Amino acid sequence: MSTYSSASDQGSIYSSPGRQDYQVGAGTTMSNTRTVNTTSLPALLQSLRSHTINTLPALRRTERLIASLPASTPNKAEIAKALHDAWIYYVDYHSLLNELRGLTKTYPFSESCLEEAKRGVSKGSGNYCYGVLKRVKDHRLIPTHARALAAKPVMWGGRNPSSSEVQKLAAACEAEWTRVLTIVLRHWEG
What we know:
elongated, disordered N terminus, mainly alpha, 3 strands, about 5% strand
């Protein structure tokens, strides 16, 4: 897991925490100043391949860092491919779902919603995680899955809920999931 040290641990995990040093491999650190020396690139490559960089904020920092490297950087294409594969692993092996559920404490984010979005996004082009999240938003998958979840008798102690109960629960799920989706998509703004 990527680690960081900061003078302040206050605020959201998605807020800008200021300068930090990130551990990317066995004792190697890089700062978030968008610079990395070529001696730390092998450690970065290893961290991506071993999935120790495994949170959305850490993957986005790494993505920005790689994008800022000069084209002449040794192994840049290999590192970019490892990052691409790390995004796929992050989404396909439930790390994205776990992070979303960690942010939706009252109504855990719908796995079926993410699964539907994943089926409509190609793993071969662009950022797979961003594509999945954008598909959830653009195809309005949250309302559909919130209603489906709210209508399940298991959500009501085994009894069939009334239509007004389904509406209320669906609205609550939709509000919480949409709020979190908006927060997570901010990683790609600016």
